[in-house]
C-alpha cells in the first residue's frame, strides 16, 4: 500500500506502542470487541488512530490531571502534536497541511481525547482556524500562515461569540469599518479559547448592515495595537486551555487580512462550525470511550457484598446500554464526517445531528461512569470526573444542542425557517 506523506509522518510512532506503561494499555485493550474504535476503518486510518492513541497515552494522559488542576496550557506538547501533522489536519499539503479527510480528523481527535479532552479540544479549534485560512484565504495568506499554523509556531483562536450574541450569532455587534486599505475593528468577543495565548485570531465582524450578510471574516495578529484581553475565566472544565474576553479598540487591520469577500463571513463561520461540530463530538467520543473502559475495569476489580460489582445485573445492563450508546454515537459522527467530505447537501444537518446525539450521550456515559465509581469517582484522583467535566461544555459550544435541534427540525419542516 502506498503511504501518503501524512502517513509517513504518523507511522514511526508504532515503535513506541509496545513500550507504553501497563497502566495505559487499557486504552487499547478493546481490539475486536463491540466498542473497538478501529472497527470499520481502513488500514491507513488504523495507523493514524494507533499513532494518535500512542501520543495521547504517552504525552498527554500522564499530565492530564496536573494540567487541569494547575490550569497549564501545554504549549510544548501541542507543538509535539503539530510535529506529527496534527495541527493542520485537513488543510491542503501545498503549504504544510496534512491533507486528510474530515473522517480521518474525527478518528484522530477521538483518539487524542483519551489523553486529555481539554487539550484536544483546543487543537480541534486551531485546526478549524487553519482550514478557514486555507479554504478562504488568498494565496498570500495561505503561504504566510499555513506553515506556521501547521507547525504551531502560530497558535490560532476562533472569535465569533460576543457578550450579547451567543446562539444568535448573526446579531453580532463588533464592527469593522473600512478606512482606505484597512479596517478599523471595534468590539468584544467572549469565551475565546486560547485568548491571549494565541498568535492569530479569526474574527467575525460587521462590515455591512444588519443580519448575516453584513458580516465579514478577518484575521488579526497578536500584538495589533488596540487588541487586549480580559482576565482568564474560571471554568468547570477545559482548564488546560485559557478562555478570555478579547477586546478590539480601534484595531487597524489590512483589508488583505480578510478571508473571502465582504459579507461572506457568516457563511464562512458556519462552514467552519460544521467541521467544528464533528470535531467536538469526536472529543466527546474519546471521553466516553476512556470512561467506559476505566469503569469496566473498576466493576471487575471492586468487591462489594462479597462479589465484584461486575456480578450485579443492573450494572451489567447499564454498561451494555452505555456501550451501545457509544457505538451509535460514533457511527453517526463518522457518517456526518463522510457527508462533509463528500459535500453532501444534507451535511450541515447531519453535523448538527452528530453533535447533538454524541455530546448528549457521551456526557451521560461519563456521568454514569462516575456514578458507578461511587465516592471514588467524585475525587480529583479519578480520571472519570475530569472526562465528565471536560465534555460537559460540548453540549453548549459550537452551537448549543438546543440550536442543533432547531437546525434539524428546520430541515424536516422547512416552513419553520421562514
Structure description:
- The chain is α+β, with helices and mostly antiparallel strands and 418 residues long.
- Helices cover 48% and strands 13% of the residues.
- It has a 4-stranded mixed beta sheet with strand order 1-4-5-8. It has a 4-stranded antiparallel beta sheet with strand order 2-3-7-6, with no helix packed on it. It has a two-stranded antiparallel sheet with strand order 9-10.
- Strand 2 and strand 3 form a beta hairpin.
Short description:
48% of the residues lie in helices and 13% in strands. By secondary structure, the protein is α+β, with helices and mostly antiparallel strands.
Q: Regions with pLDDT < 50 over 5+ consecutive residues?
A: 8-23
Shape: globular
Strand content: 5-15%
Q: Main beta sheet: strand number and arrangement?
A: 4 strands, mixed
What is the SS-derived class? alpha+beta
Q: What is the rounded Rg?
A: 21 Å
H and E order: HHHHHHHEEEEEEEEHEEHHHH
Question: Widest sheet: strand order?
Answer: 1-4-5-8
Give the secondary structure arrangement, pairings included:
Layout: H1 5-10, H2 43-60, H3 64-70, H4 75-83, H5 102-113, H6 117-136, H7 139-151, E1 156-159, E2 175-179, E3 182-193, E4 200-206, E5 215-221, E6 227-229, E7 243-254, E8 258-259, H8 265-301, E9 303-304, E10 307-308, H9 313-341, H10 347-372, H11 383-392, H12 401-412
Helix pairs in contact: 2-5, 5-8, 5-9, 6-7, 6-8, 8-9, 8-10, 8-11, 9-10, 10-11, 10-12
